[in-house]
Amino acid sequence: MQQSPQKLGLTAKIFIGMVAGILTGVFLQWLADDSGDISFSVFGMGVSTYAILVDGIFHVLGQIFINSLKMLVVPLVFISLVCGIANLSDPSKLGRLGGKSIALYVGTTAIAITLAMTAALIIQPGTGVPLPTDAEYAAKEAPTLANVIIDIFPSNPFAAFAEGKMLQVIAFAVLFGLAMAMCGESGKRISSLFNDMNEVVMKLVTILMNLAPYGVFALLAKLFAYIEAETISRLVWYFGCVLGVLFIHALVTYPILLKLLSGLNPLMLFRKMQDAAAFAFSTASSSATLPVTLETATNKLGVKKSVASFTVPLGSTINMDGTAIMQGVATVFIAQVYGVDLSATDLMMVVLTATLASIGTAGVPGVGLLMLAMVLAQVNLPVEGIALIIGVDRLLDMTRTAVNVTGDCMVACIVGKSEGEFDEEVFNDIDAGEAQEELDLHDFKKMSD
Ligand code: ASP
């Protein structure tokens, strides 16, 4: 499909939605009075703009958008992974594929958290910050390695679907796809059904992506109508330190790894990540962004479905480099505020627990803080310290989620390339995948023809 030059592409529209949402939110907050609302009276009745617009229209639109994205995650992962596995040219590749993906995910997370702690030890963001007074935060127990592994295998796949337990859905899809590939004729029949279903679900993704500019606008307008700039200014060193390391990891570590391990051009990766990063930033959930991340990996970056359908969903669950960065800085920050010296063993413990805790935890907003509580408890730091940073976490959450999904795609490219399941022409084609994102409403006609 040829695009007319003056027509705005989807990425540009999403970007406009983001900027307009942020500006609207900031503007509303600027207009708000001391009670944090813009009230006026109509026929003697008080009307609250925040109740109608922010908590009403923006909230409803934003939540519908997020729910619709989440609605696609389980069917999309299951169907595309079954297709991917069944179409794998050599099923014995699967073990290697899994091994490489997990090693890269765990390796990059360990690099991320080490970078973060080193930066925090040098910058010392916690020095001079007063202790919290009204803190209450309880840590959950960190899962044991045995439990993490056992939990990958569902006793009831339907329960796993219903609860959205991604690792369990992945395990069932892999086994189902393998069995299908072993079944000869009947396997082929089901396989063609799954391939068709995959097309339909991907079309649903396209429809949703075309609604994204409005969804993104509503989400960000609501968020920025509430975000308090003063909270950030009080914690400016912590905030800056996390943001700085997030940018270094995304703009230095990833390009180096991509170039070294696959020879691919990192600038192309960044260019093509724009939509997925915008979704991740607006939703703060790598799990909700998964449909777009998968579409980016296959249609824009050229990773073959057999690799992308396995590596990307796995990454959205176990790969959280951005989250690990926040945890690394936050742990050192909280230790500094409370005047606790962390030993080398403590620091190693933080790397281990944060990496382990991120496995099996779904990518949803704020989950990083929950995991941070486990990490702090592990090294005997006061979990209440989280109260210090909770106020600025949402903005950091949005940024680190964008880093998380970029990491997922970067690893998918490296694994795909090394397994020969990669289309370099697609990767190097700037416009690849753009046409598939455009929704052609004439498609409706085909069914009735
Ligand atoms: N929101 C992040 C994600 O979905 C997780 C976190 O850091 O809280 O990837």
Description:
By secondary structure, the chain is mainly α. The protein contains 21 helices and 2 strands. The protein has helices at residues 10-31, 49-86, 93-123, 145-150, 157-163, 166-181, 184-226, 229-234, 236-262, 266-272, 274-283, 286-300, 305-318, 321-337, 344-358, 367-378, 386-389, 393-418, 424-428, 434-437, 443-448; strands spanning 39-42, 45-48. A two-stranded antiparallel sheet has the order 1-2. The longest helix has 43 residues, at 184-226. The two termini are 21 Å apart. It binds aspartic acid. Residues 284-287, 320, 323, 363-368, 397, 400-401, 404 line the site of aspartic acid (ASP). Aspartic acid binds at residues 284-287, 320, 323, 363-368, 397, 400-401, 404.
